[in-house]
Amino acid sequence: MENQEIEKKMMSIVAEDGSVEEVEVILAFEFKDTKKEYVIYTKNEKDENENITVYVSNVDRSSGEPRLLGVDDEEEWNRVKDVLRELSKSE
């Protein structure tokens, strides 16, 4: 059996100051009931415990260009954390 490397999905993020950063997409998903889209991504940074840091953003497509927004609603954040828990179980 051949050792196949999984192709990484990359995305460019443009910061408010105009700088561009390449990040790796871990998962993109949508809650069907709210029609809100989210993306979980990493810059492959590690914390002091050697865990890879991940970021979660709400994807806003209302202006044509997708924009990444923070998740500031507590109920919404709890639902996203449930997805993250499921994701960590599958690895």
Report what the structure shows.
It contains one helix and five strands, in the order E-E-E-E-E-H. The protein has 91 residues and is of the alpha+beta class. The chain has a domain of 61 residues. Strands 1-2-3-4-5 form a five-stranded antiparallel beta sheet, with no helix packed on it. 19% of the residues lie in helices and 45% in strands. The chain is globular and about 35 Å long.
Q: What string, H for helix and E for strand, traces the elements in order?
A: EEEEEH
Report the principal-axis shape. Answer: globular
> Distance N terminus to C terminus?
21 Å
Order of strands in the sheet with most strands:
1-2-3-4-5
Major β-sheet, in short?
5 strands, antiparallel
Q: Which helices and strands occur, and which strands form pairs?
A:
Layout lengths: L8 E6 L5 E12 L4 E11 L5 E9 L6 E3 L4 H17 L1
Characteristic terms for this protein:
alpha+beta, five-stranded antiparallel sheet, 1 helix
